[in-house]
Design brief:
41% of the residues lie in helices and 21% in strands. It is an alpha/beta fold and 281 residues long. The chain has a single domain, classed as Acetylglutamate kinase-like (Carbamate kinase), CATH 3.40.1160.10. Helix 2 links the parallel strand 1 and strand 2.
Length: 281
Amino acid sequence: MNKQEQAEFLIEAMPYIKKYFNKVLVVKYGGNAMIDENLKSSVMRDLVVLNLLGIKVVLVHGGGPEISETVKKMGMETRFVDGLRYTDKETSEVVRMVLSGKVNKSLVDLLCKHGGKAIGVCGQDNHMIKCEMQDEKLGYVGRITEINTQLITDMLGLGYVPVVSTIGYDDEGNVYNVNADTAAAALAGALNAESLILMTDIRGLLEDKDNPDSLIHKVYVSDIPALIKQGIISGGMIPKIECCKDAIRRGVKKAVIIDGRVSHSILIELLSDEGSGTMFL
């Protein structure tokens, strides 16, 4: 961009900056979109930009590939049931170690390196994410029963970006592996967020899964059952879109699925007329 184009972008972005100023934005970042270290650094820089513009960013992350790698190195078995990781007692401790230790702190470090203020927490901190066992056949995979946002609200008030690893707890002291999309939707609703952004490794919802140019830009939650029936929403997209629907039902203004592998996709989505990905209303 030359200087004239940079100035025009800022002018175009101005109404969006005003719209999101002092509002809560929950960003879920995870999976294969986190593998490229240079791209991960770029995404964290974009989040710092949003924070410096006065947007209250909450980052919720996953880390499935890192968990699988660590479990393999430890000689433990990785088993999936209906697309979800089976989590026994021992594996739940590994999940906590990897998500709340390695992944969480690496993201905090990147945010700080790019000039941001960030603190890493997990769902056990201040008893943020309370759970019960989702299904005995899945082991310690948690269904969220209660969200306590006090710690997140306090950090946002001090200008920090809370970085949340989705580890749940119960009153018996058990550790739960919680799906990051589900946790992000629940947190967004509890925080009365302006928007939920799911940064993943797909462009969005495609009318034809084999044609990347068939992106559907806008979906109303009332249309979701028909899209499932038509087969447009299928497979791994179903739980992601159910999370978007859940966030909207909880009072979030909009939810968007964007491709986290595309450079600056979150800035394009939030601060331009063009947008990116699929928006759910």
